[in-house]
Structure formats: C-alpha cells, structure tokens
C-alpha cells in the first residue's frame, strides 16, 4: 500500500482553514472559467425581493431520471477518494520538505491545501443539494425542540467560542422530514454565526401558528442583508457579502430552502427589527401529496 493511501485510510487529513492564496508581484494564478460567484448579465428582474404572504411560489422542479441519485453518489464517492489522495500526498510532501521550504514554496503548498479543502466542501454541498432536489421527503411527526437540539450539536464548539446565545421558546410538534428540518435549522444558525456583528451572537428560534400549520422564525442580531439580496442568496452559489466574509461554497441556504419546499413549506428572509436578519419558513400540518 502506498504511503498516501495508508495515510488516507488510517488517519483522515485535516487541511484546516487558511486564508486564500494571494499571488505576489510577478506571480500569476489562473482563475478557472466560471469560478466567479457574481455572475454578470443574469436577468434577476423576475425574482421577488419581498416576503410574507405575497411571496411567489417557485415552479415545481421538472422530473429527473430515477437513476440520477445513485449515479451521483457513485461519482461523488470516486471524486472524494481522489480528493483524499491528493490531500494525503500534499501532507506527505509537507512532512518531507516543510522544514526546508522557503516562504514562496510554503505559500504554494498552502494554496494546494486551500484548494483541496474548498473542493471537498463544494463536493459535499453539491451532492446534498442534488439529493434534496431529487429524493422524496420522509414526513413524520417530530418534536421541533428535539430537532433543534440535534441541529445544534455539531455547532456547540463554535457557539461556545463565539459566546453565542440560542433562545428558544415553546416549540411544537410538527409534521416534517426530521433530517431536512434539522439540516435547514443548522444551515440557518450557521449562517447567523457566519454573519454576526461585533456583538456576541444572539439567535432566537420561535414558532407561530400559520393558516396552513406553523411558521418558524430564526432571528439573529448580525450584520443583516441588503433588501435586494434576500431572495438572491437563497439561490445556489449566491452571496451577499465578499468571500472574505462568506467563505463557504454558497449552498447552505439553497439546500435549506429546497428541503423546506420539499415538505410543502416555503422559506424566505426578512430584516429583523433593530438589525440583523430573520429567516422564516412554514411547515404545513399535512404532508404534500406524493
């Protein structure tokens, strides 16, 4: 077995979080075609920036081939294996050469690590987005408080480090896909943490009766969103803030929205009173027709 393969199988490599590679004077880094997140020339005039009851429903997604999820899972697994091998060899190379690397070579190696980390996150996000679009929702009765606790579990360390406070009132039992509801809540809380202000984050989760069931609000005290960005950021790969602030692949809110819509609800963003953003989504009392 090769050293890098042993490294990949026995001990997953953590590439960490590093600032983007910045070329020095005289250096040139080619940006792949289509890598920009702000795509120009796209007509957004048909998108609504409003919210509330007059928020238009999105058209139903066209039918997809039944074999697509399985094929994508296989492809994603193969690409993930290749990414791990590249990461393993990068770490072996670092261990072999790092003590003698000059500053420029170290920056190049950090760039490789950066790229591998970004590719891994993008791959996982794309697969999750495809799955939430093509796989049916598994709706059941679930306690919203339990789902919220499950959603917050992997975020506990970040919440403690940021001195964030989660405020939750009385939360009802709802009819939803527990996995998709968990992922949506996790994405909304994670988004609130990513765009927090200088103050310790305060994130309030509440539920309110809705004509069709329940409306859940996730309110934060962060830096907020421009009015013309509240609909746009719910689309895949869209960002309202520069990459120095929005470091992820730009899929979390899109996955959350599609997960909620798959259960018959809808998700939108509003400005919060006093600053920040409130993400609202509805959960119907009855599952959508299959």
Helical proportion? 25-40%
Low-confidence parts, pLDDT < 50 over ≥5 residues?
1-23, 28-53
* CATH architecture descriptor name of the largest domain: 2-Layer Sandwich
- The gross shape turns out to be globular
Continuous helix count: 7
Features:
Heat Shock Protein 90; 7 strands; 2 domains; alpha+beta; five-stranded mixed sheet; about 290 residues; single chain; about 40% helix; two-stranded antiparallel sheet; 7 helices
Can you walk through the features of this model?
- This protein has 290 residues and is of the alpha+beta class.
- The chain folds into two domains: 1-25 and 66-135, no CATH class; 140-284, Heat Shock Protein 90.
- The chain contains seven helices and seven strands, in the order H-H-H-E-H-H-E-E-H-E-E-H-E-E.
- It has helices at residues 3-10, 68-97, 103-134, 144-152, 156-161, 178-194, 252-262, and strands at residues 140-143, 165-168, 173-176, 202-210, 213-219, 267-271, 277-284.
- The radius of gyration is 21 Å and the shape is globular.
Secondary structure elements and pairings:
Elements: H1 3-10, H2 68-97, H3 103-134, E1 140-143, H4 144-152, H5 156-161, E2 165-168, E3 173-176, H6 178-194, E4 202-210, E5 213-219, H7 252-262, E6 267-271, E7 277-284
Parallel strand pairs: 2-4
Antiparallel strand pairs: 1-3, 4-5, 5-7, 6-7
């Amino acid at each position: 077995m090769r050293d890098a393969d042993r490294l990949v199988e026995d001990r997953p490599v953590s590439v960490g979080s590093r600032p983007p590679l910045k070329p020095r004077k005289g250096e040139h880094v080619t940006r792949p075609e289509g890598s920009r997140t702000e795509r120009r020339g796209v007509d957004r005039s048909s998108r609504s920036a409003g919210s509330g009851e007059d928020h238009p429903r999105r058209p139903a997604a066209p039918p997809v081939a039944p074999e697509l999820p399985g094929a994508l899972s296989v492809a994603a697994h193969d690409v993930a294996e290749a990414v791990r091998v590249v990461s393993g060899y990068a770490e072996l190379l670092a261990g072999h050469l790092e003590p003698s690397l000059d500053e420029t070579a170290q920056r190049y190696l950090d760039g490789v690590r950066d790229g591998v980390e970004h590719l891994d996150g993008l791959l996982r996000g794309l697969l999750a987005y495809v799955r939430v679009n093509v796989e049916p929702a598994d709706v059941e009765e679930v306690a919203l408080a339990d789902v919220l606790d499950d959603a917050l579990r992997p975020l506990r360390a970040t919440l403690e480090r940021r001195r964030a406070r989660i405020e939750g009132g009385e939360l009802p039992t709802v009819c939803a896909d527990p996995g998709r509801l968990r992922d949506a809540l996790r994405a909304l809380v994670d988004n609130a943490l990513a765009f927090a202000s200088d103050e310790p984050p305060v994130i309030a989760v509440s539920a309110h009766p809705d004509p069709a069931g329940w409306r859940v609000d996730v309110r934060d005290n962060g830096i907020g969103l421009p009015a013309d960005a509240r609909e746009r950021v719910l689309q895949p790969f869209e960002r309202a803030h520069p990459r120095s602030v929005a470091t992820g692949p730009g899929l979390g809110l899109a996955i959350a929205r599609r997960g909620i819509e798959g259960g018959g609800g809808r998700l939108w963003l509003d400005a919060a009173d006093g600053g920040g953003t409130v993400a609202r989504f509805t959960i119907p009392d009855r599952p959508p027709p299959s």
